[in-house]
Amino acid sequence: MKHTTTSPDRRPVRDRNGAATAAPPPARTPTRRRPASPQWAAWAFLTPVTLYLVLFYAYPLYRNIDLSLRHYTVRSFVRGDAPFTGLANYRTVFDDPTFAPALLHTAVFTGMCLVFQYAIGLGLAVFFNQHFRLSATLRALFLVPWLLPLIVSASTWSWMLNSESGIVNAALHAVGIGPVNWLTSPSWSLASVIIANVWIGVPFNLVVLYSGLQSIPVGLYEAAALDGANAWQRFWRITFPLLRPVSAITLLLGLVYTLKVFDIIWIMTKGGPADSSTTFATWSYQLGFGNLLPAFGPGAAVGNLLVVTALVFGLIHVRIQRKQALS
Q1: How crowded is residue 192: how many other Cβ atoms within 10 Å of its Cβ?
Q2: How many CB atoms lie under 10 A from the CB of residue 253?
């Protein structure tokens, strides 16, 4: 007598005559498709940013470097057959008598603007951090210089500092001080554009530093006050040290912005009188577009010097931040 062995999941099926037949195989369940690799999604998000950086940053920078290494004229610029000259344009820039004054004015303009913008912005941020009545309204009013177009701000300061009809000289005359040739005197032209640029840059420092103050725990100030620390000690021992990361990025962004300031200086003084307020930014424009016979190569070389300066300070900032993270 034969015994039929069956598996638990495949029982024998009997036909009409009673004969046992094998059960049909079970139906296969459909398998789910594996989700797409997350790398494709990452590349999809990175593609627009990469195209933007290549088209509007990498390619213009490449073209500027190419301009500085060739002898371009108007004809060769149109035809695209400028001869390669190597570092000749840089030697021309370094040998130009305008180089040393422009370097000094750029350093003074950048340094003074950074110091006053940061100091005034930090003072205002600490002041508005007290959360008194109308604090938000006054803080919003301080953002007006930052929101105005640069041409409007520069034109307003040109009118205010006018030697004959300016409101600043009128105020000085009211207190018995003689008129000052703010925009037409070599002794005052650089100071005038520094004042205007500080006024424009303070709101940016105020916003960033005020945001940094919001991240400092209030309990630290309360504990310091219980220990007998006065306002200056709380600022110097708590506020200033904890604001160092925010202060570093604020000064770096301010440095990059101030190095390339052109609108304010050009509208107010055009780099004069007698190149007394000429910086690398205005000098680069004068070389490339301010003459009947433009010097595209030297102008691009001066622009590249600004790029290298900003890059050096950026690398220094990254190195300092890396050391602080490891310590």
Answers
A1: 25
A2: 14
Asked if residue 120 lies in contact with residue 194, where contact means CB atoms within 8 angstroms, the answer is no
Q: Would you call 13 exposed, middle or buried from its count of C-beta atoms within 10 A (0-12, 13-18, 19+)?
A: exposed
Alpha carbons 241 and 245: distance in angstroms, whole number: 9
Residue by residue, DSSP assigns 88-112 as HHHHHHHHSTTHHHHHHHHHHHHHH
Point out the residues of the chain with pLDDT beneath 50.
1-7, 9
Cα R_g (the chain), whole angstroms: 34
**CA distance from start to end of the chain:** 86
CA 129, CA 221: separation in Å to the nearest integer? 13
Measured at the CA of 174, the angle between CA 168 and CA 176, to 5 degrees, comes to: 105
For the packed helices 59-68 and 296-326, what is the interaxial angle rounded to 10 degrees? Answer: 130
Tell whether the torsion through CA atoms of 79, 84, 90 and 96 is positive or negative: negative
Q: Which two tokens mark 287?
A: 């070389």
The rounded percent of the chain whose pLDDT value lies above 90 is 51
pLDDT single digits (tens) 215-252:
898 889 889 888 888 889 988 999 999 999 899 999 99
Give the pLDDT score at 1. 46
